[in-house]
Amino acid sequence: MIETPSLVDQYCHGVLRTELGLGTFEAQLARTEGPPAPGTTLFDTQTGFAVRRWCPPILGLEPHCPPARYLARRRELGVLESGRRLLRGSGITTYLVDTGLPGDLTSPAELASAGAAPAHEIVRLELLAEQVADTSGTVESFLANLAESVHGAASTAVAFTSVAGLRHGLALAPEPPGPGEVRGAAGRWLAGRRVGGALTDAVLLRHLLWTAVSSGLPLQLHAGLGEPGSRTDRTDPVLLTDFVRATAGLGTDLILLHGYPYHRHAAHLAGVFPHVFADSGAALLRTGARAATVLAEILELAPFGKILFSTGAQGLPELHVVGAHLFREALGRVLGDWVAEGAWSPEDAQRVARLIAAGNARRVYGLG
User: Fold this and answer.
1) In terms of CB atoms within 10 Å, which of 99, 106, 250, 317 comes out highest?
2) Helical axes 67-77 vs 22-29, angle rounded to 10°
3) What 3-state class would DSSP assign to 298?
4) What are the domain boundaries of the chain?
5) What is the rounded CA–CA span in Å between residue 140 and residue 142?
6) What is the rounded CA–CA span in Å between residue 127 and residue 337?
7) Are residues 179 and 135 in contact, defined by beta-carbon separation less than 8 angstroms?
8) pLDDT value, residue 226
9) Cβ atoms < 10 Å from Cβ of 69
10) Closest to 332 (Cα-Cα) out of 313, 308, 356, 312
11) What class is the 8-25+53-122+156-173+225-365 domain?
12) CB of 331 within 8 A of CB of 4?
């Protein structure tokens, strides 16, 4: 039996503080650009079936119970109690939390309290730049305040994360932009921007990435399938090769997030470059009962010390539960089969399982 007593969720978000009806719950289950088609339900997805399998028992119901019954029990317990039970029932022992999403989501401290596990902040670069722009009157003050903000965030956060690939695409010029280029881009962006406007300028995105690289903190890069409306046609992680090569030897680790359906490409880059790591999170959450197949494909290419577990969960504590259970079951099935076939020893399988579940993340993020 493969055991993972420690589970570091190396990329997730907070959970919603509000009660949810069927429609709002489904909208969080599968982030789409609208409601399900008439006569259909988003519970009829791999993620929906996984929620019905793993979450009802934590709330005192039978596995696979109907969605209406499950949501009624959730409302009966209340959002705080149901969230507390679900998070603590996930088995996750440490959370690394991206605080860059909008909405009424719990903070890392609130997630830590509800889940009875430590939680650390991951700072989203684009949101940081947008917040600095909201309070900076000139180009000079914006750039100075941005540098100071990144430096300050690096002293408290465990990592930076960037959605440059989803905002613009990953085919960015790999070298850092020059000072004049940065000032010109900042001037144009600030002049045409309303308060709260999103950062999509390619030059400033590159500037942010290289500023984060200079901090030495791990840098997470979003690839694979993104949010509705993102440039998913340009988020194959292989497009990052030039940037990855340019950052080699600088002391900053790069973690490729959400590589699915390009998880093999992300695993390949992790195998080629010493400072690149591959996340297994969203791939398993999306594929549900097929998670073992996807995990085996990642293990085909990436060194075992370069793969990190995450749930990628946001909004619903159920997604933390599902991500953790799918990972444990997929890992146990894949490694267990290799042990049964005589390809691996039980000791090696157990050692690798603990690396992927927690050890690699503790090393990369300096968690001790």
Assistant:
1) 317
2) 110
3) helix
4) 8-25+53-122+156-173+225-365
5) 5
6) 44
7) no
8) 53
9) 13
10) 356
11) alpha beta
12) yes
Q: Cα–Cα distance between 289 and 291 in angstroms, integer? A: 6
Q: Which helix (H) or strand (E) holds 121?
A: strand 119-124
Q: What are phi and psi of 144, to 5 degrees?
A: -65, -45
> Model confidence at 232, in pLDDT bands (50, 70, 90)?
very low
Confidence of residue 234 (pLDDT cuts 50, 70, 90): low
Structural contact between residues 198 and 126, judged by C-beta atoms closer than 8 angstroms: yes
The helix/strand/coil state of 279 is: strand
Which tokens belong to 339?
A: 């042990």
Q: Are 108 and 14 in contact (CB under 8 A)?
A: yes
* CA angle 257–288–31, rounded 5-degree value: 60
The pLDDT of residue 295 is above 70:
yes
pTM over 0.90: yes
Q: Could you tell me the pLDDT band of residue 33, with boundaries at 50, 70 and 90? A: confident
Q: What would the mean pLDDT of 164-185 be, rounded to a whole number?
A: 88
Backbone phi, psi, residue 10, to 5°: -80, 0
Lowest-confidence range among 77-81, 82-86, 224-228, 332-336? 224-228
Q: What is the mean pLDDT of residues 341-351?
A: 97
Token output for 344: 């691996």
